[in-house]
Amino acid sequence: MSTYADVKLPDGNSAPGVAFGVGTAHFGSDNDTIVGYVKTAIEVGFRHLDAAEAYGNEISVGKAIAQSGVPRSELFVTTKAGPGLKDPLSSFESSLRKLGLDYVDLYLIHWPYDFVKPGYPTIQEAWKALEEIKDSGRAKSIGVSNFRIRDLEKILSIPDLKHKPAANQIEFHPFMYEAGEELYQFCKKHDIVLEAYGPTSPVLRFSGGEFDGVLDKVTKAVAERAGKDKVEPSQVLLRLAAQRGAIVVTTSSKDWRMKEQLAAGALPELTQQEIDELVAAAKPAPQRAFMKHMDDTNTEY
Ligand SMILES: NC(=O)C1=CN([C@@H]2O[C@H](COP(=O)(O)OP(=O)(O)OC[C@H]3O[C@@H](n4cnc5c(N)ncnc54)[C@H](O)[C@@H]3O)[C@@H](O)[C@H]2O)C=CC1
Ligand SMILES: O=CCc1c[nH]c2ccccc12
């Protein structure tokens, strides 16, 4: 079972603090193998699933939910709108149909790319559509993903805003800690929950170099405090994201790794000194694995 604390959303709902994503690792478009991975994730204790229209596998996620034997009310299902967000309402209805659900717990706009294209809604128009979806009860909460401060500002400045974004799902790991600070503080100020994807990227996608040594040192210290022989570096990174107050979005196709990911929620807190060490070591090479537009201060979407 999950050892991550639930995270309270600003609209009064709450979400399990760790989510199982179906957009990376060995996930592709719909097939029975994916159904198996998602069923395993539910079996080992994940209760929050992170899907997206763009991943092309909502049908498989829906099948896994139906076959899991876990009541719908005990699961928290997120999906995301886009690409090609011309008509948010039909995107949403298509996702619901594919998932075989009558509601999702959280519906996100996947990224802000589409809103300046001719024939597409503006961010504000798209958000109004999400508000209607929330008001219909078919999405319990609504939010965004990969939104920069100025993208969020466009929503927050809607004159008759009814529901602000409950969450912003963004890349988060020590390489992003400082680069993401301003956005983190902005979300905190506006009570928008951070969802952290790519949390283990430093060990998975950017291993090597000076950073590795520092992670080992901190990992050893955490293992000692936890009274364990061994703690995985990736678990320390998951703990760091949870400690930041984020909903942690991770994934795997392997049951033992899924269990390891869930167990990371019970690790002792990282000390401020350990966090500082991780951040300092990451400083020379801030880098993100996904969504380079997040560093783009020029392009309007
Ligand atoms: N909103 C968005 O634009 C994005 C959302 N996501 C969501 O987040 C989910 C998780 O994203 P990830 O970046 O994959 O999460 P992640 O950084 O936790 O990486 C998970 C992967 O790392 C592997 N891994 C973990 N620890 C490892 C270790 N010690 N050694 C080797 N491999 C290790 C896992 O087996 C898995 O393949 C996605 O499936 C998707 O649902 C991901 C990217 C973008
Ligand atoms: O969600 C972010 C990254 C990602 C993983 N799989 C796909 C497929 C299509 C668009 C984006 C992504």
UniProtKB/TrEMBL annotation:
Site note Lowers pKa of active site Tyr, residues: K80
Gene3D superfamilies: NADP-dependent oxidoreductase domain
InterPro entries linked: AKR, AKR3C2/3, Aldo/ket_reductase_CS, NAD(P)_OxRdtase_dom_sf, NADP_OxRdtase_dom
Residues annotated as catalytic: Y55 (proton donor)
Alphabetized SUPFAM superfamilies for the sequence: NAD(P)-linked oxidoreductase
Domain NADP-dependent oxidoreductase span(s) in chain numbering: 21-281
Family to which this protein belongs: Belongs to the aldo/keto reductase family.
Name the UniProt record assigns to this protein: NADP-dependent oxidoreductase domain-containing protein
